[in-house]
Design a protein that fits this description.
By secondary structure, the chain is mostly helical. It has 13 helices and no strands. The mean pLDDT is 85.
Length: 343
């Protein structure tokens, strides 16, 4: 719990400094624009996020239902929103997976089955993200949506990181023994360079990860229609997520001339730009990319103010709700355990 508090405080500090830096030159104007925000469009943005969460939860539900038929949509939704909190406070969003394993263990789902579910969800998500990113990059070139070279470089790196992940997962699944040997070679090399301290433990973890991905990938390939449906579910969820920026802009100025297709393309490029940024939530990088990409479509003062609305709805609000939900559930379990111990 102490680590959770420290990470949360660190994220708050980064956020305060970041938004101070962004708003300081146009603070009064930004506050005025925020005070006059169109609540209808803010409501639409929130609805889009809810749809995003529900579709992600539905994928988790149908994956779990292959093992536990009684697992409900309500439980999947609660798990998904709690995952937002733990992903949000950890670098590269790695905190959500241990939480999911922990929560699923409370539903009498074995750790091995939980890991399989999480692995399948991850593979499906990466396929969907790479597909949308590729389409967006093609559209970006066709429509000449050209940010500065630094931002475009960040986007390309993000795309290649996601593409390499899919390639590595596929390679591991097809050639697991070769993948293990290649991993062993690099782990031993890094150990000699004193970058990796515990060589044997790292090799064991690598072998376990190879096995997890291989089993998850092969399990998905057994039912290609299920895989396709899963990818379509995540594509749909991501499109709802990308619409949040569009409604955030309209919330600040409903008269602004913004093309919804262009907005979806830019939101997709912003999303993949942040995938390799180690700061929790991709902070700093994702805001920087938002400011530069949406400046291609709308005035700077609208971009800056809409960023506050977009980031709050798409990141901070779900994190706050996820943290509250987790604490409520965790406290109920603690009280239940105390009562059982008394009896």
């Amino acid at each position: 719990m102490k680590k959770v508090i420290v990470r949360s405080l660190f994220l708050c500090l980064v956020t305060v400094i970041l938004f101070y830096y962004i708003l300081k030159d146009n603070f009064n104007e930004s506050i005025l624009l925020l005070s006059k925000s169109n609540l209808i469009y803010i409501f639409f943005a929130i609805v889009c996020y809810v749809c995003f969460i529900l579709l992600e939860a539905y994928l988790i539900k149908i994956l779990i239902n292959k093992i536990n038929k009684k697992y409900s949509m309500k439980k999947a939704s609660i798990l998904t929103i709690m995952t937002r909190f733990f992903n949000g406070i950890t670098p590269f969003s790695v905190g959500g997976e241990p939480l999911q394993v922990y929560e699923l263990s409370k539903e009498n789902i074995k750790i091995s089955d939980s890991i399989l579910i999480i692995t399948e969800a991850f593979i499906i998500h990466e396929i969907a993200v790479c597909f949308l990113a590729l389409i967006s990059i093609i559209c970006k070139i066709i429509f000449h949506l050209n940010p500065n070279n630094f931002v475009w470089s960040i986007t390309l790196i993000g795309f290649f990181v996601n593409f390499i992940i899919i390639f590595v997962v596929t390679f591991i699944s097809i050639k697991i023994n070769v993948a293990k040997k290649i991993g062993d070679f690099f782990i031993k090399l890094l150990n000699r360079l004193n970058i990796i301290k515990n060589k044997d433990k790292t090799i064991e973890e690598w072998h376990n990860k190879c096995t997890e991905y291989s089993i998850g990938y092969k399990e998905l390939l057994k039912n290609k229609s299920f895989l396709l449906n899963g990818v379509l579910i995540i594509v749909g969820s991501m499109l709802f997520y990308f619409l949040i920026a569009y409604f955030s802009v309209l919330a600040i100025d409903a008269t602004v001339n913004i093309n919804v297709i262009y907005s979806l393309i830019l939101s997709s490029l912003i999303y993949i730009s942040a995938t390799f940024i180690p700061i929790p939530g991709g902070s700093v990088g994702i805001e920087y990319c938002y400011l530069n990409y949406f400046a291609l479509l709308i005035p700077e003062n609208i971009v800056i103010t809409s960023l506050v609305v977009w980031r709050f709805i798409s990141f901070y609000l779900p994190m706050i709700i996820g943290g509250i939900v987790f604490n409520i559930i965790d406290n109920k379990r603690t009280l239940k355990c105390k009562e059982e111990n008394k009896n």
